Structures are given as structure tokens and as C-alpha cells.
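Work Package 4 report. The design task specified in the project plan requires that, given a folded chain encoded as C-alpha cells, an amino acid be chosen for each position. We show below one input record used in the internal validation round.
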């Protein structure tokens, strides 16, 4: 008899139009135990749920198709890591449909918050409903959609900040350091908190002096922006310790430990469709050891007080736990 994951995989394969179940291993789980005491109330601030596509269909304009990742698999991850709270972010593959994220939050209960994707059709009443379901911010994913034009980024950020200021939600942005430099003045004057994903899109090999990263440090230092020190594997290819990320992480922590939060980026979708494949073909999830990644936080922040700020205090303030 096919189990629940088998049913999801079968549904996804049919929906995506390809038969590649043999390469779909499912979301990774930690191989290494956490080597430090994780404080009570710790939060994983960047995750995604990929639901059954028969129930949560993908956006037709997506640039990749991930395999499933369920709330139960996420719960197993966090049990292994000693993480109590979670922030679930709607991934680009759903467009402005937040249904899978709502599903994930409901499964987790009061220990979960959400970050939504909205569009021009999203009403204030829709936002009110999302707030009641645990959402506390919206995401602008400029990186995956290929937006690098500073003027487009400025327009989209300003519109998002204006929309959110009446309700106190934050604006989360996935972009690159040069774009951050181009919108720095808007972020500094923003009426809402601003959060940058994944080290601000910095590349570890280019170091702390790469174009745009000093501007990101300025925003963090002044308290005008939060940064997720998440998805280290997106900044570096040096698995499993991502040693070249250390200078970036430590520079951000030195700038302002009260404006940093941590996240896994589980289930680690590969947003680059392989050559010769279509965006509707299923791309396997990346194999990341989140135990090893969490252990790097103790390298970036040897002080337990600083780790508690990053894992517990800052997320509680930003997401309203």
C-alpha cells in the first residue's frame, strides 16, 4: 500500500508531467546532532511547505517545480534540532496563493507564523484574514524572479511598504547586495520593519567588501533592517561547514546582534531548473544537513547570549511570538 509521501510524489509527478520518482528522496533530515544547548523558544525563521499539488496547485508562471515537503516532515526536522518555533514563507512557486503556508501554520499551531506573497488583487480584508491565520509580513522575491533593475526594485519596495504601514507588518526581500545599495535610502526611511533573506544575497567568496554589503551593514547597524543569516549554502558551495560564510555572519553580528534572525531554508528547494528540463519538471530538493548548518551558528556567535538573541529574542519581537 502506498504511504502518504508516495501519494504526494505520485500526485506531483502526474501534475508536473514527468516520471522521476526514482530521484526524489524527499526533504533532508539532520545527519549531525546539534553540538550546543539550543535555548527554549528558538525559532527557525525561514522554511517552506510544498503541499500536495492536487490540493495546492503551483503557479503557472513558476520558474521551477519542487518535490513535496509536509508539515510532518518539518516537525521531525525541528524535533531533531531542538527548535520550538517556525516562520513559514510562501515560496515563489505558488505565486500569490498562500494556501500551502496556511496549511503549514495550522498544522503547527501557535508556535508558527507566516510571511505571505500578495498581488494587486489582495484586498485589505484578505490581509486581515491572513493576520488572523498567523501572518506578520509579506515577501518580495526579486532574486528568483530575476529582478535586478534598481528602479523596479524601488517601485515594488515602496508600494509594499506603503501597503504594510497601516497594519505594522514587515516587508521581507530576497535580492542581491547591489539592489540593496540602490534602495538603501528607502529602507532607511521605511515606516515598517524590513527583512533581507539569506545574508542579503551576498556571495561568500566575494567577502565583506563586495558591492552592496557595506550598505547592508549600515542598515543593520542603524537598526533599519533585519537580516536572516539563513541558507548559508546559497552563499557558499563549501559544504558542510561553509567556512567562507564566517566573515559575512560575524560582520553582521558585530554590526547589530538585535537585527539578526536564523533560518534553515528547509526543505532546500533548488530554484534553478537543470538544462534540458522544463520549469514544470520536478527538480529534486537539495541535500543539506541542517544539524551541521545549525552548529555553524556557534562558530559565528560563540557567546550563548548572542545566540539567544538571534534564535529567540529577535524573532519573538519581529514575528510577535
Amino acid at each position: 500500500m502506498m504511504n502518504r509521501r508516495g501519494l504526494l510524489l505520485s500526485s506531483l509527478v502526474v501534475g508536473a508531467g514527468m516520471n522521476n520518482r526514482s530521484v526524489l528522496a524527499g526533504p533532508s533530515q539532520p545527519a549531525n546532532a546539534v553540538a550546543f544547548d539550543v535555548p527554549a523558544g528558538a525559532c527557525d525563521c525561514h522554511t517552506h511547505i510544498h503541499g500536495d499539488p492536487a490540493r495546492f496547485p503551483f503557479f503557472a508562471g513558476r520558474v521551477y517545480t519542487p518535490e513535496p515537503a509536509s508539515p510532518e516532515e518539518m516537525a521531525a526536522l525541528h524535533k531533531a534540532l531542538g527548535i520550538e518555533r517556525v516562520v513559514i514563507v510562501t515560496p515563489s512557486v505558488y505565486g500569490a496563493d498562500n494556501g500551502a503556508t496556511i496549511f503549514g501554520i495550522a498544522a503547527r499551531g501557535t508556535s508558527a507564523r507566516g510571511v505571505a506573497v500578495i498581488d494587486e488583487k489582495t484586498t485589505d480584508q484578505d490581509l486581515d484574514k491572513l493576520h488572523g491565520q498567523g501572518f506578520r509580513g509579506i515577501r518580495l522575491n526579486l532574486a528568483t524572479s530575476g529582478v535586478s533593475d534598481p528602479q523596479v526594485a524601488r517601485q515594488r519596495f515602496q508600494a509594499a511598504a506603503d501597503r504594510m504601514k497601516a497594519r505594522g507588518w514587515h516587508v521581507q526581500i530576497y535580492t542581491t547586495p547591489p539592489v540593496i545599495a540602490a534602495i538603501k535610502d528607502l529602507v532607511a526611511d521605511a515606516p515598517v520593519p524590513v527583512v533581507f533573506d539569506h545574508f542579503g544575497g551576498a556571495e561568500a567568496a566575494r567577502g565583506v567588501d563586495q558591492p552592496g554589503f557595506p550598505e547592508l551593514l549600515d542598515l543593520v547597524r542603524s537598526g533599519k533592517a533585519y537580516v536572516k543569516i539563513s541558507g548559508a549554502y546559497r552563499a557558499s558551495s563549501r559544504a558542510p561547514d561553509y567556512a567562507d560564510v564566517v566573515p559575512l555572519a560575524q560582520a553582521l553580528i558585530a554590526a547589530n546582534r538585535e537585527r539578526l534572525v536564523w533560518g534553515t531554508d528547509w526543505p532546500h528547494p533548488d530554484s534553478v531548473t537543470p538544462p534540458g528540463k522544463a520549469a514544470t519538471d520536478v527538480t529534486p530538493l537539495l541535500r543539506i544537513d541542517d544539524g551541521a548548518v545549525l552548529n555553524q551558528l556557534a562558530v559565528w556567535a560563540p557567546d550563548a547570549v548572542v545566540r539567544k538573541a538571534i534564535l529567540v529574542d529577535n524573532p519573538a519581537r519581529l514575528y510577535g511570538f
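The longest strand covers residues 135-141. Validation will be extended to a larger panel in the next phase.
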